[in-house]
């Protein structure tokens, strides 16, 4: 009889969103803009670094933008592991909407999320990235991760994390944006070398630390590997 998804774990993967930025608080589109963190975002960054260190990845990948790369590089330095920026972890490119507020976009007669037609095809404005292209980037990252073992952390963006879940579970493009993804929250996946299984969604840094360091009576299959750590 085939086992349940998650019975075999060859890799544990943590996908984390970057800390709060001025675009998050001022509500403008900043997919590819290198915007600074807010003071609160700086506080979040410190908590996020501690979560990554507690998780103890063997490697870290990150978006090249500073809001993701900064905390990834700090955690990697403390852990003594590699930190590799990947363009495939960049946020959705909003094209002509970059730098515009939600109100300005609506006032200009534009809209977001992009319209998706009856055939399931997205229609971004000229110069913006399609949802299909973002999904393909997520799939490339998953293919890169699939054969790895141990623990991996990826620091990326909110829109990217929405599409990542959609890529794993084949959520239609009309619905993938319907997820709340908080700053410095994490999605946790396990992999058996082929299939990814979701083990945690929208986890705060404190929740990541708890799961990664303390055995949980509900985690009967030890998907976080905390009991395995204790036996080492």
Short structural description:
This protein has helices at 22-26, 39-55, 66-79, 102-107, 131-145, 158-169, 205-213, 226-231; strands spanning 11-17, 59-62, 83-85, 150-156, 186-191, 196-203. It has 232 residues and is an alpha/beta fold.
Provide the CATH superfamily. Phosphoglycerate mutase-like
Strand content: 15-25%
Largest sheet: 6 strands, mixed
Structural class label: alpha/beta
Helicity level = 25-40%
Detail the poorly predicted runs: none
Q: What integer is the average pLDDT?
A: 95
Strand order of the largest sheet: 3-2-4-1-5-6
Q: Which CATH C-level class is it?
A: Alpha Beta
* Ends apart, CA distance between termini: 30 Å
Radius of gyration from the alpha-carbon trace, in angstroms: 18 Å
Structure summary, number of beta strands: 6
Shape assignment: globular
CATH topology, by name, is Rossmann fold
Order of helices and strands: EHHEHEHHEHEEHH
Description:
There is one protein chain. This protein is of the alpha/beta class and 232 residues long. The protein has a single domain, classed as Rossmann fold. Helix content is 36%, strand content 15%. The protein has eight helices and six strands; from the N terminus they run E-H-H-E-H-E-H-H-E-H-E-E-H-H. It has a six-stranded mixed beta sheet. The chain starts with 10 loop residues before the first strand and ends with a helix. The mean pLDDT is 95.
